[in-house]
Amino acid sequence: MSQTRDLLLEIGCEELPASFVDAALRALPDLLKKRLSDLRIAHGAIRALGTPRRLAVLVSGVAERQPDLEEEVTGPPVKAAFKDGVPTKAAEAFASKIGGSVADLRRVETPKGEYLVGTRREAGKLASALLPEALAQIATAIPFRKSMRWGAGDYAFGRPIHWIIALFGEDVLDVEIAGAKSGRTTYGHRFLAPGAITITSAAMYVDALRAAHVLVDPEERARVMRERLLEAAASAGGTLIEDDFLIEENLSLVEEPHVIVGGFGNEFLELPERVILAVAKGHQRYFGMRAADGKLLPKYLSVVNTAENPANIRRGNDNVMRARLSDARFFYREDVKIPLADRRTKLAGIVFQKRLGTMLGKAERVERLARELGLLLQLPEPAIMAAASGAHVAKSDLVSLMVGEFPELEGEMGRAYALAQGTGPEVADVIREHYQPKGAQDATPPSDAGALVSIADRLDTIVGCFAIGLTPTGAADPYGLRRACLGILRTVLDRGFDLRLSDAFRAAYDGYGGVSLDLGPGELTDKLGDFFTERLRGLLEAKLPSDAVAAALPVAADRPLDARARATALAGLDADTRARVGEVFKRATNIASGAPAGEPTPPRAEDHASEKAVHDGYLALAAKLVDLRRAGDYAGALREVASFAPLLHRYFLDVYVMTDDIPVRENRLRLMRAISETCATLARLELLGERKEA
Predict the structure, then answer these.
(1) Inter-axis angle of helices 244-251 and 18-38, to 10 degrees?
(2) Which BP terms from GO are recorded (predicted)?
């Protein structure tokens, strides 16, 4: 059994930006895995480690040598390898390439003709001889948004390199990167333990740095950061407002996280909570705290890279925080003086899209479309009125001072200003909710009124962009149309809106009456139907079997809620049952394509019993399906179909449909068509049981 060792590469450099560290740590494992695979060097787990001052990768269980290689290699065709029985240069070159002689080669017959084949044998090399060059190559392949050159050389890296460690077990590998030569010396925390550290083996690297106030493992650093934030919040009399984004943002800014509690004064609590948290988060990357009653405390937590002089750090942070909040308070006081409805006309100065007009035009279309969608869905009048009123001012905060400074507060500030100006919460909430969902993990709007405006806003964008040819490509979706489509579908499904998409597309299209568009409503509806169907497929397949989704969509994609109900009912049949149903209906559907016009007649007395059983079973099934479909009981309908499927299977075993007796054959084809068409009103059953290709 071959021996193994741990492998360590550390590149020490000047402080890297957080985004550089994150990108490098994502890329390093795959870079090293591929290189080791190319070298045929076996290995265990690969860990990417790093801080602003160092990038490292640690690999466990790296084999000390390659395995010996013995492989069959196909060479040139025999007719090219020999001329008049004498080996040509092609044969000699091939033999030399695999380390043998022409006499060692064999002739093998292949579908393409007779070829020469030889065995290439190669003794495995020591990993210690192969790894230095591989590690140097990996360093050059680390992706940085922008690299820099320094000194007299042409080597580019994210920041100037100061030291390198390359250890294979306890042995130093001879690696040179940008003029820096490898050794076993690294350095601790710049402020708390700046001295040199000797790493005697790869296995002790993480522990040695931890002792020098460097938590080089990002997972450990994140865990310690969260623990210290919780402790600091508790010591300050509050509870931490946890935020994974801020954890990630601070993670690559420090080598060891330390937490400082700061404050900004009670006078700033007049600002909406969301504004204070946006100032802390957006500009300073600070965490907020709440009191026991859930109210925001006039305090914050900052993650810093040193425990030295915390009072000085706190004083500076407080000054910056108060200055930022003073600006925000000025913006808020000025903004709240002007009613949102009065701001709306200023939206004419913001271009939505150069061919589709201004944000004012979009606001007018969204307000109209929200009403239309409410009527299509037959929602209660109060919900439709709240949606229309909210839509009327939903975009007005875009021209406020606060949103100009903090774009991420759009909707939040509109709601805050509306409430401050006396608008009822059912309308004010629409302003915030219509931006939901903001991403795949964000919740959809919690009210019908907010959902109507959310759908209308996204649908207006999608319809307008598609109508002028701005459709997403494989590489680009600058208007976020895929995300907007998913937002609509998620909202429709979450709210239980039985919306017919084609009707919604036409309603949105009508809103562009004064705009020159490239597509007519029919062509646009077809394109959008395909676009929405594919997004709906992905949403449903995340929770339901792909064959059930594939069978439901062709008959119900225009009504997403109905499509989900059908797919869910299909998924209620176990996989084996779906496969059996799919098999017999695929055969019936294929046969039915050749059926002549007309209805099937009852079988003759002399016909096989299976033929009578299927005919009678079909009549009974068709009668039951009428009532079950009318009641929307897809599960019950599909259970009836599943019970009928064995009769059809038996029929195909006992009866030859394509008999030479033409009248009999045509009647049997009509029966297959009747069965197929009747059951196709539920789903494309012939697609059941088909496995989705990877």
Answers:
(1) 70
(2) glycyl-tRNA aminoacylation
Q: Give CA separation, 291 vs 230, 239, 261, 612, in Å.
A: 13, 7, 14, 77
- Cα distance between residue 380 and residue 292, in whole Å: 39
Q: How far apart are CA 215 and CA 189, in angstroms?
A: 9
The answer to whether the CB of 307 falls within 8 A of the CB of 318 is no
Which tokens hold the place of 359? 């944000």
Beta carbons within 8 Å of 244's beta carbon, 6+ residues apart: none
Q: How many CB atoms lie within 10 A of CB 81?
A: 23
Count Cβ atoms within 10 A of the Cβ of residue 348 and give its class: 0-12 exposed, 13-18 middle, 19 or more buried.
Answer: middle
Copy the structure tokens of residue 167: 């250890």
Do 437 and 491 meet the contact criterion of CB atoms below 8 Å apart? yes
The DSSP secondary-structure symbol of 439 reads S
Which residue from 675, 619, 670 is spatially nearest to 645, judged by alpha carbons?
Answer: 675
Inter-residue contact 300 to 259 (CB < 8 Å): no
Rg (CA), the chain: 35
**Position 180, amino acid:** A
Residue 382 has pLDDT above 80, yes or no: yes
Pairwise CA distance, residues 671 & 677, whole Å: 10
Query: Which 8-state DSSP code applies to residue 145?
Result: S
Residue 357 β-bridge partners: 353
pLDDT 10s digits, 389-399: 999 999 999 99
CA distance 265 to 331: 18
* Token digits of residue 94: 């091939």
Q: Residue 204 forms beta bridges with which residues?
A: none
HEC sequence for 226-273: HHHHHHHHHHCCCEECCCHHHHHHHHCCCCCCEEEEEECCHHHHHCCH
CA 572 to chain centre: 28
Q: Which residues contact 251 (CB under 8 A, 6 or more apart)?
A: 18, 218, 221, 222, 225
Residue 105 clears pLDDT 60, i.e. is over it = yes
Distance, in Å, from the CA atom of 82 to the CA atom of 648, rounded to the nearest integer, reads 63
Q: Six-digit token pair at 85?
A: 């029985």
Shortest CA distance to 489 belongs to which of 437, 547, 560, 548?
560
Cis ω before 437 (30° cut-off from 0):
yes
In 10 A of CB 237, how many CB atoms? 12
CA dist., res. 625 & res. 678, Å (int) = 8
Distance CA 618, CA 647 (A): 9
- Cβ atoms of residues 436 and 454 within 8 Å: yes
The answer to whether 562 touches 498, Cβ cutoff 8 Å, is: yes
pLDDT tens digits along 232-284:
999 999 999 999 999 999 999 999 999 999 999 999 999 999 999 999 998 78
Tokens standing for residue 34: 């591929």
Which of 300, 278, 274, 304 has its CA nearest to residue 287? 300
For residue 441, the tally of other CB atoms under 10 A from its CB is 6
pTM: 0.80
Alpha helices in 339-478 (DSSP H): 340-343, 359-376, 381-393, 401-405, 412-420, 425-433, 448-467
